[in-house]
Structures are given as structure tokens and as C-alpha cells.
Amino acid sequence: MSRNQDRLGGVQQKDTSPPASGGGLSFVVPTEFVDLPSLGRYYPEGHPLHGEDTVEVRQMTAKEEDILTSATLLKKGIALDKVVENIIVDKTIDPKSLLVGDRNAIIIAARVSGYGSDYNVTLTCPNCGTKSQNTFNLRQADLNRADEFRDIGVVHEGGNIFSVNLVKLEGIQVQFRLMDGEDEKALVKNAKSNENLVTKQLYRIIHSVNGDTSPSTIRSLIENLPMLDTRVIRAAYKATNPNVELNYSFSCGNCSHEQELEVPITAEFFWPDR
First CA to last CA across the chain, in angstroms? Predict the structure, then answer.
């Protein structure tokens, strides 16, 4: 199934020539407009990004490099949050409210403007286990607008809420929402324990069951959810989640295995010279 996709490289540079100054030099950090995978469709009315398909960000400076090398911020897992907060021009935008896909688009655009589009990454062949160095052009990353979800029976209820009918549990409709930065941060923290990752994600995204938003009803559903219906919800979420797709057409030089692999974001993402 084809999707409406655009290349991430379409950021628009803004002319920010240094203003005239009567005493010494004065400098202004360049800014650019980053395309949002969500097109602003899934933010509530009143949110600064409601109906906006781009967001203005300034390019990173030495201040952001300080953040990315801060042992304290890295240990707390908030370094990238601080960078995103710093570079967004409109300070009425709460970085925690950004949808995950929009946040990823901003992070990737910041990396491209700061260090270039070539991302050297080590990929492991899923067939023979051979590791190889590969170069991924971040400007060729696809923006997945996720606007063909109706083809699989998902309904957009408005704002950030979608619904899908379960298969095994007939007559049950689940309403779910797209995750934002706060949700992602919580899941990353939970991932360190590597326990109950699927159910923890379901608790994050399920908004209601047949319109019932009570925690007890949602908990009862998750604890008794057949695996097939779990897959239905996760497939519906993936189909509706606008994001940046970092996929690489991998070909193993050792065994000739070919496969589409997801490019991992590692510590080297912001430190290509290491």
C-alpha cells in the first residue's frame, strides 16, 4: 500500500542576516522551517501547531553541544528534550506536547543543519550476523504522513483520537491516541527494565473502550486482550502515526542477503566525528 510521503530535505531556510549595530558586531543564529509529518492535523484547537504544517527552529550552537555532552542530562535522558526546547523559535510550544513524529523531524533537521546529512552507522546482517559500515543520507528520509489509515478500518474521531474495531472481542471498539514526548520518555525509561513493554505501550495509547475512559475498564481490556486484537491495535497505531521513516535498503557484502532495515539512532547521531 503506497503512502503519501515526502522527503525530509525540504526544509526552508530563513534569511537572518546580522542586523546593523552601532557598537561592535552582532550575530543572529540562522533559522529554518521544518516540515511536520503530522501537518498539524492532530493537535487540539488552541495549540500553537494546530493546523500548521511547519515549525521554525534555529540551528544548533555551542550551547546545544554543551547540552549533548552533559553527563548529568544524558544520565537523566533529557538531553535531546533540552535541545528541542532550545531550538524551537516559538516559545509558546511545549516540547513535551510534540507528537513523536514531529519531534523526530525536528531532531533530524537539527542534525542535518549542524553536521550534514551523511549518517555513518553500523548495521548487522539479520541473516549471517556480519556487521558493516553504511552511510545513510538523512535528507532522503521519508516523511510518512500516515493519511491512508481508513483503508484498514481506522476512524479519525477528531484531534488526536482514533478508533478501531477489535476482531476477536466482537462488538468492542478501542479509541486510542498518538503518543507525545512525555509518553515516549516514559516508554524509554520502562524499556530499560525490558519488561511488559507491549502492555505499557497499550496503557499509554488506549484512550477509551466503547467510550468508557475509566482506568479500570482499560486495565481489564489490556489484561484480557487476545493477541490478535493486540496486533490489530498496534497495526492501527502504526498506520495513523505520522513519523520520519529511517529505512535503508541493506545488502550484505558477506552473504548477499537483502532487506529493508530501520536505521538506528545511536550516540554517534550527533557526534559524526567520533
Answer: 39
CB 251, CB 134: distance < 8 Å: no
> Domain boundaries in the chain?
5-18+28-118+137-144, 149-241
Beta bridge partners of 122: 133
Query: What's at 29, amino acid-wise?
Result: V
Residue 202: how many other CB atoms lie within 10 Å? 21
Task: Assign 1 to helix, strand or coil.
Answer: coil
Torsion sign, CA atoms 62, 69, 269, 242: negative
Specify the pTM: 0.82
Q: Give per-residue pLDDT as tens, 32-66.
A: 999 999 999 999 999 999 999 999 999 999 999 89
- The architecture in CATH of the region 149-241 reads 2-Layer Sandwich (3.30)
Question: What is the band of 73 on the pLDDT scale with cuts at 50, 70, 90?
Answer: confident
Q: State CA 174 to chain mean position distance.
A: 23
